[in-house]
Amino acid sequence: MLQIISNQWKEFMDYKDSIEFFVHDSGATTVQCWSTKFPQDLFGMIYNRVPGPRSRVRFAAVCRSWFATASQHPAPPALPWLLLLPRDGDRMKRLYCPEDNQILCVPPPKGFIHHWFIGCHEGGWVASYEPGPFRIVNLFSGFEVALSEKQKWIPRSGRLCKTMIWKIIFSKPPTSSDCILAAITDDDYSLALCRVSCPDGGWIIQEQRHRVRLADIAFLNGELYGLTPRFPWSPNFRPYFKVFNLTDVDTGEGVAYRTFKWEEVKNLGDFALFLGPNCSRAVHVPEDRLGGVQRNRIYYTHRRCLGRKVVPEDELVFLAMSNDDGDPVYFREDDHYGVDMIRAVGYYARRDPDPPMWLLPPDI
Asked: How far is CA 319 from the centre of its chain?
């Protein structure tokens, strides 16, 4: 661990000489910690340039002085991680961190070993409905939100089988008294709503007008918005991403007559989009932030099922990252196809029939 930190320090400071570490006895009272001889503002500068949560944890674990430095400098907002699908006999949850380019294995909360998650919220909150019943838990702290029997199942009109959930979103953290849950279900793609703090209310099914299919939903400023599927517009019929911003058109006739229109966005600025069937977020990426995540990019999960020994033949695949179990996670940068588009990177895992899910971890 010390050697890793030493190499990172030399790289950040462009330091060519060797760095020597001495063993410090934390119980000794007469020996001063070697790191106290260095100015604290130097440690702060180094800590602010440490890329990724794993390296920041290593930094804080060196000694008390470095831990104090980490405590005085709040960690930058966490970027999404990729939660991989569980495998047969796998008792750990596997998380891929694009910022660190590493796969982490974390023990799941009790009772969630073989569960797959269908939605998440900032801070490590995830929603599980397969296998049922519906549950909300924090993947890192293990705290589970108490739900009533009415809230654990979504009713299905006219059928005895249970309703499946394609996606669920949170208006606020699930521990908030006014948190609203919204879900897209397989019951003709109906919309289901539930307030966590009202256990007697259960789920309310909102029928869609004209049987419009919902492709995605999102909360914005307390309002719930839905998107319908759009046809691909690529000139060679290979899909790519276009980004639009919903803008307010001032008609001069007052708030009651306000209208909106979609305007195409050609540049994301200092933001990056993380897209997936179960979680989509726009996150701020500062210019000086190090790591594998870049601003003005679209990172998305891709449905691609590959056999155990099948290697992708796509020439655009530029990395296959594997953990100790030999289960690769591939990602590739999309070709521009000769059109003006925001650069996108797709992620997919071998042998997974469904794409991985973006997870919004706590700030580490």
From this structure: 20
